[in-house]
What does this fold into?
Amino acid sequence: MQRLIECVPNFSEGGDLAVIQAITDRIETVDGVKLLDVDPGKATNRTVVTFVGEPEAVIEAAVRGVQKAAELIDMSKHSGEHPRFGATDVCPLVPVAGVTMEETVEYARRLAKRLGEELGITVFCYENAALSEARRNLAVVRKGEYEALPERLADPAWKPDFGPAEFNPRSGATAVGARDFLIAYNVNLNTTSSRRANAIAFDVREKGRIKRKGDPVTGEIARDESGEPLWTPGSLQCVKGIGWYIEEYGICQISMNLTNIAVTPVHVAFDECAKRADARGVRVTGSEVVGMLPLQSMLDAGRYFLRKQKRSTGVSEAELVKIAVKSLGMDDLKPFVPEEKIIEYCLAAESAEAKLVDRTLTGFVEETASESAAPGGGSVAAAVGAFGAALATMVANLSSHKRGWDERWEEFSDWADKGKACHEELTRLVDLDTDAFNAILSAFRLPQGTAAEKHARDEAVQAATKRAIEIPFRVMEVALASMEVVRAMAEIGQPSSISDAGVGALCSRSAVIGAYLNVQINCGDLADEAAVDDFLTRGAAIVENAEKLEAETLELVRRGIQEGG
It folds into this structure.
């Protein structure tokens, strides 16, 4: 999975578009970073910028953006309705894909350290990145705003986490944090009554509604001992929401911010809104995401709705996305274009890098047959293994829908999920094997005129060689794992597909042995003898297991064909 984090810096300029453009232009100078959104506000005199990419690239882009903001924005002349204390007021990092919150916290602190040491920015860490519990809340960190900074920085208790403790009247201070991904999500209703939409929003949002005595609408507000109103919480955690009427569409919506999609994902929010709306005589007709969302949210939604139908979830990524779009009614108001709304797809659409797996089958075969040294046996072994795992997944999916086996759908769905994970990883390894080979060639081309250059070249060659062993070795491991699914489908899958399981076993075993040949030949160029022994010993054991599983599977297949005949 691609490792992605999002950065959402808020710059204290909302009116001068030239300044905003200069900052975002600077951010976009970093390769691998995609600018997703620029949202200036004149009244707040603040611009929220959103960009995404691999962690290291995002950190670099954030440093460049903050540096440009410090050059162009003078906080001594700033005013606006929104709380602020710096030219770059806040700069949170958000995990999107393949990165944990714990890792994001470390990236945020690394960013904060660079801002302090390289740019001389006064930095406080907040939310999940806070170095002390007292600084977790942004409102506490920013208390008194820019105007209070001279006095606060003179207080030893408010020594910055990074950067100088001296007040800089031009750049002020910056808060760097790590927070969960937030999705702005609207659910469409078949009503024009904003009062009813609000009632549903109050039913579901975490804050809920004010508690009243007697009549829940007109009754006296219930209060605690200090006179503060009491609240009845809503049904969904980490959800903020209101109901409103949208003139453009002529309908009402429940407008929500899902502040932690690990707690309340999109599909859970949608179904809960549908349930609460139905109880009030209102029907949900669809929904929309404002901005973009991670691919995982769509995949989770697709699996959720398939499971509700008691159908196998071991289907393609494209099918899961399609099921999610239809089930959530995301094309109710306007077409849902995955390449524009799903972050990973948006990034992939901009990449000009050609992949072997994106070619037609004929194109892949012809490229393999050409005079170029890659793709070669390693990529083909991975591709053959992917076909073997795909056949096992197919048998599992067909078995889950077999008439009379309805009560076994979940059993076969679990097998299909395992097979799908194998064929997806093997498909990725097709290109990674070719990349590893090309990396060796690139390492050999490095200069070696001086002793230092020769040493660096030798180290690069050895690192690339080890990588060229690790990739086919991983092919072996995954292909072997897929054989467990193949064998299970030969034994318990629908009888009419048993020959497909047999072909899958042959493909998977061939992938293991073919990849091992690549491991062996590349081990001849690796100087680390201990690593070579480890690769060859473990590789031989994988081959032995694969041959054993192949023999068992083919015996099941032969027996099944004879019994069927």
User: Anything to note?
Assistant: The chain has three domains: 4-178, 183-349, 354-564. The longest strand covers residues 88-97. The mean pLDDT is 93. The domain at 354-564 is CATH 1.20.120.680 (Four Helix Bundle (Hemerythrin (Met), subunit A)).
